[in-house]
Amino acid sequence: MSTFGHIFRVTTYGESHCASVGAIIDGCPPGLNLEPSDIQVQLNRRRPGQSNLTTPRNEKDLVHLQSGIEYGVTLGTPISLLVKNEDQRPHDYSETDLYPRPSHADYTYLEKYGIKASSGGGRSSARETIGRVAAGAIAEKYLKLAYGIEVVAFVSSVGKIHLPSTVASPSSSDADNDDAQDAVSEEFKHLLATVTREQVDSHPIRCPHPETAERMTQRIVRAKDAMDSIGGTITCVIRNVPPGLGEPVFDKFEATLGHAMLSIPATKAFEIGSGFKGTEVPGSKHNDPFVKREDGRLGTKSNWSGGVQGGITNGEDIYFRIGFKSPATISQAQETAQYDGTPGSLAARGRHDPCVVPRAVPIVEAMACIVIMDQLLIQNARKTAASLLPPVTTLPSTMVLRKKTA
Amino acid sequence: MSTFGHIFRVTTYGESHCASVGAIIDGCPPGLNLEPSDIQVQLNRRRPGQSNLTTPRNEKDLVHLQSGIEYGVTLGTPISLLVKNEDQRPHDYSETDLYPRPSHADYTYLEKYGIKASSGGGRSSARETIGRVAAGAIAEKYLKLAYGIEVVAFVSSVGKIHLPSTVASPSSSDADNDDAQDAVSEEFKHLLATVTREQVDSHPIRCPHPETAERMTQRIVRAKDAMDSIGGTITCVIRNVPPGLGEPVFDKFEATLGHAMLSIPATKAFEIGSGFKGTEVPGSKHNDPFVKREDGRLGTKSNWSGGVQGGITNGEDIYFRIGFKSPATISQAQETAQYDGTPGSLAARGRHDPCVVPRAVPIVEAMACIVIMDQLLIQNARKTAASLLPPVTTLPSTMVLRKKTA
Amino acid sequence: MSTFGHIFRVTTYGESHCASVGAIIDGCPPGLNLEPSDIQVQLNRRRPGQSNLTTPRNEKDLVHLQSGIEYGVTLGTPISLLVKNEDQRPHDYSETDLYPRPSHADYTYLEKYGIKASSGGGRSSARETIGRVAAGAIAEKYLKLAYGIEVVAFVSSVGKIHLPSTVASPSSSDADNDDAQDAVSEEFKHLLATVTREQVDSHPIRCPHPETAERMTQRIVRAKDAMDSIGGTITCVIRNVPPGLGEPVFDKFEATLGHAMLSIPATKAFEIGSGFKGTEVPGSKHNDPFVKREDGRLGTKSNWSGGVQGGITNGEDIYFRIGFKSPATISQAQETAQYDGTPGSLAARGRHDPCVVPRAVPIVEAMACIVIMDQLLIQNARKTAASLLPPVTTLPSTMVLRKKTA
Amino acid sequence: MSTFGHIFRVTTYGESHCASVGAIIDGCPPGLNLEPSDIQVQLNRRRPGQSNLTTPRNEKDLVHLQSGIEYGVTLGTPISLLVKNEDQRPHDYSETDLYPRPSHADYTYLEKYGIKASSGGGRSSARETIGRVAAGAIAEKYLKLAYGIEVVAFVSSVGKIHLPSTVASPSSSDADNDDAQDAVSEEFKHLLATVTREQVDSHPIRCPHPETAERMTQRIVRAKDAMDSIGGTITCVIRNVPPGLGEPVFDKFEATLGHAMLSIPATKAFEIGSGFKGTEVPGSKHNDPFVKREDGRLGTKSNWSGGVQGGITNGEDIYFRIGFKSPATISQAQETAQYDGTPGSLAARGRHDPCVVPRAVPIVEAMACIVIMDQLLIQNARKTAASLLPPVTTLPSTMVLRKKTA
Which residue of B339, D24, D101, D403 has the smallest Cβ count within 10 Å? Predict the structure, then answer.
């Protein structure tokens, strides 16, 4: 389906060779000050041609707002927006069209629809994400103004080049010894707590650790020179999310977040908090003990949970990681088969991103904002409704929310 | 929300101290032969008390079908079913109720609802999954009869004890050298292609590799003896899924599957195909070249994609892995804080699973079946609709599905 | 689908010959005091055997709460409830099974599902409405406590016996003369403003006008004596609904309300406010001019709109009317055809309601409450979200909500 | 919400003063030949300026397809389309802005959103329906090609001027005598069976009975001359819908159809088949006896049900009627109050339709097509799924669909 969300609903359209790509955002709160520049800034971070590491196509990707806003203020009605496809000619026929590109969507789109766009992969095109990024920028503007929520994503690995300490290594090869296990290092905790978009954007690779960013750059250049491609991971942190978001049992916060992230093209993996590594750590070390915070609220000493417990946010920073595979389109020849099964060799023409993670950073942020926005609206509906009821007096005191500070 | 799916819709209810837990399954195809035993077999694999590695409570968990079936055949109307909670007394007040259990859902449920069940974590209770397992068993019966689809999940790690070769190790510590990278070993490919539920169930730990299963058992015993807990991972393979399932752009197959898996209690991570490891492999090695299969269809030589490309199944085996954290409830004392912030020490009473993965195997299978069932129905709606149209003649031949064999 | 609502979601199950009928209510606000008696009172008004005008079966229809409530307080988690079917034996085969009952659902259920329940009409059974009535009673309890909302439905016609002045007659047969047109009489306005459930229940026919109620009774007795049946209409008024409910453009208040009402068995017609009659009245007479109310708010002088303008409630009383056809099952012989087309004569066995409207009154009330509850939650999500934004200062003053009183 | 449908999903956007209005249509079957002219023809029937009975604004309303189509064939991906608003300047401030227009949406939009478009009624503008009409034209093209489904709507009344015999009158004023009752006359049955769009469009009023059309015209002219407005009704017939559509219990065919129709601006009433009149007719006369049709299928002798029984289509013609109130905007002065409660007199400026029903005809057809399309896709999913199961052999023969002819 091309719609995401229950109350804040984003519907996107468009593939790479049609007139435009865009989205309708339904359910945006009214009264939000919104200028095209609020959206354009994230579209610019997503668009191609930002550096010599990405495809050299230089599309402007200017957003055109169609509805739902007057005098720079949202009306509460659907916001429609679009970005024109500069080059919308249907793809010319060529010999390479006889081949479904390996690990691309040509084959599956044809199987699913019985027909496919001339560009091949249809909606699996990266251009589809323009609508998401624009919708996410709207959500982000609201979240920042109303809650001070901050969402910062960054590249945490390219190929085997990892940001130091994003996840700690097991202390030894002794599989039975987990004493020294630390799922998240102090250094990484500091990064999560402080990293800004400015830091992220200070290097085109969007890794906030300059030395690592340089090594990542070299890795991408190497892939490019080899007419090859390389994958990577993005880590994202969200700060100031209030406790209580997430809708058990099927729309738990991390389930909806994972859904959103795994719908981004080229993603193959998602983990929240300590993730896969954390499964190796015993409960006594993995549990996050509670402490009284300075503001009187209850917080947690560690945060292996990644800000979510029982599928509901607990007010701590939310952090998660997404794996992006190497781009399927590579210029070197691949031994494969045509649609009719005839074996042959295919070499992609044109120019392509050798690595998608730098440009995927704003997409991850956008999807995160869309998820939080929707979950916030649902939770606010519940809280407002409950607040109108007479106080409950018949319950044991441990079952009712009390002031948690003296 | 407590409903999952668009056409095949599962709605669950219940927490651990209420009268019963159960589900309404709406949208099941009519005419399916369905006996209580089809459901009970999976409930039995999920229920506690199966071995001395799980909680010693011995609940029978008998399914009671309420509607939607006559003479052992589904009517197409909602199937309601329930399992009684043998012990439904509200939890007695105790001193430990002053404490939110660290990394459990007590705190977040209270923050979300302003009230919580006497049992603490409300719907985060493992008993909630009974409705899922029952619904999944119904979907599985259909999928097997109509498509020959097989779903087999198994424990692939407990703590640091991993099934050999579930994911290959990088060949060297040289991060720039990825020549020898193999995301999935031959041994693991063989396991995915052949593993059966009988093999999985031949050891109580539900790991199909006897030697590893024994080491996993020792690891759990060690956790139990230490009044501690340990996490693990489950890998699942799905065979015979037809190509074409998955609904771009937001309900791509892996996005919906990830959503389903991450809604299972205690999950923190999900990856499909080569997952996180695959992000380190260049495209030239990670891509799955096409080959003509014996049945004339197009297949892929390797399957790093895990059966999904562009968010749509390609007919190859689907495999994925889920990370389960260590259970939060442990018997040893934890330094933490009370709801009001007062520091103190909490030791859980009662008996709990030291490791959830053996019992989570049927839950993973159930959610996989529910996802496939719903996606199949949606895709069948599209295919049937398209098949009723006059043939398209104006399109370039590369855009239309043709017989792919001579 | 068997689920209704977006945030307050009701899923029902059950047909007449299965073990039980019931519902899962998801999204109920937490902290609501709820006793079984709150639900039972409306189930009692719905159940058969209340008078000699309804089917003489005397089912107890006792509600059994399964989940979502502890100590008489809702937890915010799904509330599951069920009512046992006392007689759940599958219908015995008989010669009359060869015939689809005319205007009943036997034929269409068989066509839709390729299989049908032994009772024939499957989910078109009146017993299906038990889940709705129970869910509606929960919603009503909330709406009354939190908003003082009152919902009262009553029988406004049986056959040709109409409550006086429910809709005024055109003043003359001159189609071009609409001077004297009055869509709603003063007497009817008074009734809408004051009618209570006690008044409605003071006569078994549930018409609050004693003289008319008596004539309606005679009409039903005449139908019963003739082994025939008769239809009727129900009018419903809702008081104290706040302005702002309804979700344009597709989920306008009256669209969702009409959906809900037309999903009740045997309904064929719905109108709100002046309805069909109002289409004959020119705008100058049909428009509802604004006036300042005593409480300072803006109200309307007349209320032909029925409390809804532009698909959104305006704070005035909401009133609407639903048409129920004559029950299809009648005891007299009908010339019709068998499933295989063979002509023949069918006379229904058993005993059936000769008129459904008296028992349908609580069903109408229930569906109204469910609609309001869901729309309230959605609107509260929006209002709460908007209230957290900084004030909008750039808009012309006529575009922003101001205090409407000096 | 601005999205309608489950599988065939239409999302619209736009109000009267923004850049464009339009829609995203998601879930359209792939392989459908679709030209802009397929859509434009219905947009032309909806646009203003068609005759001197409608507003003299002459907007071209040209459709611009954005995505989802290549070489004139649908790809199965979202179809986005838009129509530019020729005059998109925000409304100038004026003294009349102090007044909410009586029975218009100015007041309720402001109450709902706390802000309103400068044009006043926001999405209640008739221009919002452009997206619906375009989406409906796409659905209609499919329904016609794949099923031969015909949808024809026409004006059945303007004010008190009714098409003869759309519903029969009671034969006498004796409320107890219903012997001569006929809910639908023979003449009307003939009209339903034969009426074409060409006949409907042969008169600008879109009533297929020339003499009545002329009287309706005079009635509208009279309203216009009086600076007043007048309401009316539209009747719609749908032919060749297969049996089995409709999704009990909440999405019964008539419930979903009623929802769709009551979401059209200015609608206040909906009835299917014999509707309100039919409630006065006893079951023995109202029931539709079965007969064997020439094609061997089972049909019904009469069709008071309007093609739907138990919420499911039975293969007979579907017919229904919608009531549209008189337009709220009239040029004569109205005594009303300002937003702040100050009494005063408001006279609308500009030019407005004195009666909306002629232009609403294509909107009704569009919403009907959208409903059928979505229900067809859901039912096809079920039928296809059921057809893949082994035959059921354990059921009594009366419970299973058999060939109904020798």
Answer: D403
Distance from CA of D71 to the nearest CA of C (A): 32
C-alpha distance from D152 to closest chain A C-alpha (Å): 31
Chain D hits for A90, Cβ within 8 Å: 70-71
Considering only CA atoms, which of A115, A160, A138 is closest in space to residue A39? A138
The beta-carbon neighbor of A402 closest among B222, B226, B339 is: B339
Pinpoint the alpha helices (H) of D166-293.
Answer: 186-194, 197-201, 210-225, 253-262, 275-278, 283-286
Do C345 and C211 contact (CB within 8 A), yes or no?
no
* pLDDT tens by residue, chain B, 406 residues: 999 999 999 999 998 889 999 999 999 999 999 999 999 999 999 988 777 776 655 678 999 999 999 999 999 999 999 999 986 555 555 767 889 999 999 999 999 999 988 777 788 888 999 999 999 999 999 999 999 999 999 999 999 999 986 554 333 334 444 443 455 677 888 999 999 999 999 999 999 999 999 999 999 999 999 999 999 999 999 999 999 999 999 999 999 999 999 999 999 999 999 999 999 999 999 999 999 999 989 999 999 999 999 999 999 999 999 999 999 999 999 999 999 999 999 987 766 789 999 999 999 999 999 999 999 999 999 999 999 999 888 887 778 875 433 3
* A52-58, Cβ contacts within 8 angstroms, sequence gap of 24 or more: A53/A204, A53/A205, A53/A217, A53/A220, A53/A221, A53/A224, A53/A353, A53/A354, A53/A355, A53/A358, A54/A353, A54/A358, A54/A359, A55/A351, A55/A352, A55/A353, A56/A351, A57/A351
- C75 → closest Cβ in B1, B76, B115: B115
pTM of the model: 0.96
Note the helical H segments in B105-245: 106-113, 129-147, 186-194, 197-201, 210-225
**Lookup: tokens for C146:** 């939190």
Nearest to A320 by CA among A381, A377, A259: A259
* Residue bearing tokens 């087309």: C341
B150 class by beta-carbon count within 10 Å (0-12 exposed, 13-18 middle, 19+ buried): middle
Q: How far is C115 from chain A (nearest CA, A)?
A: 30
Phi, psi angle pair for D167, to nearest 5° = -135, 140
Residue of A nearest to D2 (CA): A26
Q: Chain A 365-384, CB below 8 Å of chain C: which residues? A: 376-378, 380-384
Task: Write out chain C residues lying below 8 Å of A374, CB-based.
Answer: none
**B17 catalytic, yes or no?**
yes
C270, β-bridge pairs: C322, D270
* C-alpha distance across the termini of chain B, in Å: 49
> Annotated catalytic residue: which of A38, A106, A288, A353?
A353
Active site residues of D: 17, 104, 353
Distance CA B5, CA B10 (A): 7
Question: CA B9 to CA B77: how far, in whole Å?
Answer: 12
Q: CA of D360, closest CA in chain B: separation in Å?
A: 29
CB contact under 8 A, B311 and A395: no
B89-112 burial code (b ≥16 CB/10 A, e <16): eebeeeebbbbbbbbbbbbbbbbb
How large is the ipTM?
Answer: 0.95
Residue-by-residue DSSP string for B257-325: HHHHHHTSTTEEEEEETTHHHHTTS-HHHHS--EEE-TTSSEEESS-TTTTEETTEE-SSPEEEEEEEP
DSSP state string for C358-399: HHHHHHHHHHHHHHHHHHHHHHHHHHHHHHTSPPP-SS-GGG
Eight-state DSSP code of residue B148: -
Return the residue of B nearest to A119 by Cα.
B399
Q: List the single residue in B with minimal CA-CA distance to C13.
A: B78
Chains touching chain B, criterion 3+ CB pairs below 8 Å:
A, C, D
